[in-house]
Amino acid sequence: MSRRLQRLLIANRGEIAVRIIRAARAARVETIAVYSEADAGALHVRLADRAILIGPSPARQSYLSIDRLLDAAIQSGADAVHPGYGFLAENADFAHAVTNQGLVFVGPSAETIRVMGDKRRARECAVAAGVEVVPGTGADPSPDELEKFVSTVQFPVLVKAVAGGSGRGMRLVERKEDLAERIDEARREAEAAFGNGSVLLEKYLERPRHIEVQVFGDGRGQVVHLFERDCSVQRRHQKLVEESPAPGLHPRLRERICAAAVKVAQAVGYEGAGTVELLVEGGANPDDAFYFLEMNTRIQVEHPVTEEVTGIDLVREQLQVATGAGFSFDPSSLEQRGHAIELRIYAEDCRKSFAPQSGRLQYISRSGGPGVREDGWAEAGTTISPYYDSLLTKLIFSGPDRQATIERAIATVDTFVVDGLPTTLDFHRWLLRTEAFRSGAVDVKWVEREYRGEVVPPQSVGPLRLPDTDGDAAED
User: Fold this and answer.
1) DSSP element (H, E) containing 18
2) Which of 86, 350, 359 has its CA nearest to residue 235?
3) Residue 42, Cβ neighbours under 10 Å: how many?
4) Is the pLDDT of residue 409 over 60?
5) Using one digit for the tens of pLDDT, what is the confidence trace for 99-119?
6) Distance between CA atoms of 445 and 441, rounded to whole angstroms?
7) Under DSSP, is residue 384 helix (H, G, I), strand (E, B) or coil?
8) How do residues 23-37 score in pLDDT, each as one tens digit?
9) 357-380 residue pLDDT tens
């Protein structure tokens, strides 16, 4: 039985909060924004029907406070909560607390989040579904298990936090002599970031591609995939570029990968939007190996890529499924159309190993036109806070094929300007012109091997000039 959502509290900030507000408005659902003191003048606060202050700037006192978010939901009369991505989006305790108040959590069940958020249990789930995983250990391996593992694989190996993601609690170990120290480092970082210092070890794949599959469960037992995305352009295990279809992926391998992702989602009775992430060795041959990496139980930063090649509004679809109404689309009619590429524009200094930047934006241009979409929140005058992620905006390009889409991206970023802070635009202008990217020959370590901080400035764009308010108006 379906129910209509009347009022949605968005437990997030930045561009994803803006994105959810727009989808909810299209669905005629009232929106409640929450904000910290640092975000008092932010775009999502101004766009929402109502906004509630939930605490000081530090995330643990605001966006990560379950009690304050629940108080805001109850105070506003919300009947549903959308967690966005990051913060508490994959926190099972938060999902449970929301539903325990009789509210709709726009996402999978708390138990599904708990299972797939634990890398050990997620691996076990994938194996039970018949999907291969990267050879590794269990959580916090005993000395005997550790010795057995390192004796059967070649270094380097990877130490990974059981909880969390985004590269935190992860260490590459080149030599056996460094293993104990790197495990301790990963544990300390994971404990600080996620409150859980458990780690596991995995075989390190030298040059894999990062392929992920968008899955969706209708809440009625049906799970489908909405094809794959390639996310191999990364720095510090975090993505910079995503695209669909994955370049050079053999059609039969694509079918195998997407079918495996559906099996994993079905194994946990998945409901709503989620992403199964995999590492692929090669990709040009139908029998190339791939391994389950993890599952993200939320909407992804790169969801617009899938929207552009399927024509489906994934956030609105989340709201539809959350009501119990099932899919608004016919799964049998799903197809990839054309090509799409997303560039993430962060406030980071590419010349200094992508160091995050904070400060006031003086100017940011806007983009548009056929095949050009921008999902962002930053404006001229916005202060980029050191408390949160430094993502400013996302540029999404679509076209009839990959080369046309790349050319469209180049034409846009060449004239896209941000003044006030260094950004990853410098990197993207360089990347789009490289032969490796244009030919699709990029793996997850490619940026670390090849990028040396090159900066390509905006093309044919002079210095920003403010209007002369004292002179006569120019003639048309």
Assistant:
1) helix 14-26
2) 350
3) 23
4) yes
5) 999 999 999 999 999 999 988
6) 11
7) strand
8) 999 999 999 999 999
9) 999 999 999 888 999 999 999 999
In angstroms, rounded to a whole number, what is the distance separating the alpha carbons of residues 9 and 98? Answer: 11
Q: Determine the pLDDT at residue 108.
A: 98
Cα gap 69→63, rounded to integer Å: 7
Report the predicted TM-score, pTM, of the whole model to 2 decimal places: 0.89
Residue 394, phi then psi, degrees to nearest 5: -125, 130
Express each pLDDT in 303-348 by its tens digit.
999 999 999 999 999 999 999 999 999 999 999 999 999 999 999 9
- CB–CB of 280/292 below 8 Å? no
In 325-450, at which residue ranges do the beta strands (DSSP E only) sit?
A: 339-346, 348-349, 355-356, 359-360, 363-364, 372-376, 383-384, 391-399, 418-419
CB contact at 8 A, 42 and 383: no
Closest residue by Cα to residue 247 from 424, 133, 405, 451: 405
Q: DSSP code of 433?
A: T
How far apart CA 389 and CA 260 sit, in angstroms, is 32
Domain with CATH 3.30.470.20 in the chain: 209-450
209-450 belongs to which homologous superfamily?
ATP-grasp fold, B domain (3.30.470.20)
CATH number of 135-203: 3.30.1490.20
Positions marked catalytic = 298
**Which CATH number describes the domain made up of 7-106?**
3.40.50.20
DSSP string covering 291-313: EEEEEE-S--TTHHHHHHHH---
Start and end residues for every CATH 3.40.50.20 domain found in the chain? 7-106
pLDDT band (50, 70, 90) for residue 1: low
